[in-house]
Model the fold of this input.
Amino acid sequence: MTVKIRIPTTLRPLTGGESEVEVEATTVAEAFDALEAAHPGFRERLYDESGNLRRFVNVFVADDDVRYLEGAATAVPEGETISIIPAVAGG
Amino acid sequence: MATFRDLLNEAKQQIDEVDTATAEQLVADGALLLDVREADEFEQGAVPGSVFIPRGHLEGQVEGRLTDKAAKVVVMCAGGVRSAFAARTLGELGYTDVVSMAGGFNKWKDEGRDWRRPEVLSPEQRNRYHRHLLLPEVGEEGQQKLLGAKVLLLGAGGLGSPAALYLAAAGVGTIGIVDMDVVDDSNLQRQILHNVDRVGDRKVDSAKKTLTLLNPDVNVITFDVRLDASNMEEIISGFDVVVDGADNFPVRYMLNDASVKLGIPVVHGSIFRFEGHITVFDPRNGPTYRDLLPEPPPPELAPSCAEAGVLGVLPGIVGSIQALEAIKLLLGLGDSLVGRYLTFDANEMSFREYKIRQDPSNQITYENRDRIQVVELEGHCMPAPLAAPAG
Done:
């Protein structure tokens, strides 16, 4: 199943500037594996050493925070968008 | 040909009248009191909480101000004549539960019932804020609220500049500004409070000059200090809303802890290159910064605008949205961004919105406010443990 991943400005250098990447996946974890395979470097930005999603990166499926769903195991329906929203502090 | 007497008698047959004591009771029970006298009469004295629409503007304005046509309305004027005609008009407009107060304001006042001289806008203010006064959702009452409101801006930089300008223009009566920097040439690409003549000046002084020139109604309070745990609570207390335009994580977390402790809503804005984020943290009524972001990224993953750059117009848009959200909070207007994280991508010209929730593991909550300790934060910005419960 094809799902979309929104890439934030801070991580676009990893995708060569692309703001959206399409991957084949049924869960957030699968989508991030596919993203890492296509554009290496995402894994360490998204997961900590113990393999948990980092607490300073918010991941949403549609507009829902996966922390309140099933984390990386959250299912992603066909055609749905996963958004990666890292913290920024600029003012 | 009917005389005035005939018209009045006819009107009174078509409406219900109540005496002042009954009117007072109805209002205490939740009825709306509509004052249809002229502005000069109203300014001499009025019943607190009454809605003022002069008889001459009644048909034109009432449907915008009194949207519920089934609500109980008590109409009053000075003596009970104009209110009788007004009550009949309201009936014709479809208001179903309207009474006229016999004896009017004069009798009300003579009987010693509650009244006071309303705060009114000066002719200059009426002109300046005319476009606000035309909006039924703002009106004179809303404008008075803005003039009585106090908003604190964290930073007189990229976000603080547009936010401060619009808040001052809107007539927010007290604007506090915290910034310890001086104006630098490299600021002028986006920090529109400042200009070339002010390069080298304290930013707060430059901001005050600009805002006072824009609107002399505004009292600008400057804090030319570095925010830290020792002054944070003292500085933000007393403000109704804080507009957060800080440029680093520790200050944003410290602001969170102090604002949760004091129950003050924070309008959050942050920017990076072409991307902006905006939300409202209302600790009494929704998620806060620590719910959104339990910990900040390490510095190598979160370059500042000084390192990574920012398109100059971007903070103009984000800061303007912050000003808008602050004004909505002050006026109780519309749907705020509480619980909604709005992101803006300037390259795509797209807005997206995400739900944010209260994190059950976050202990820095309004319920725990008496035990929150605002401390200096570094690195992971972990909050100080809650103090032991008092007693």
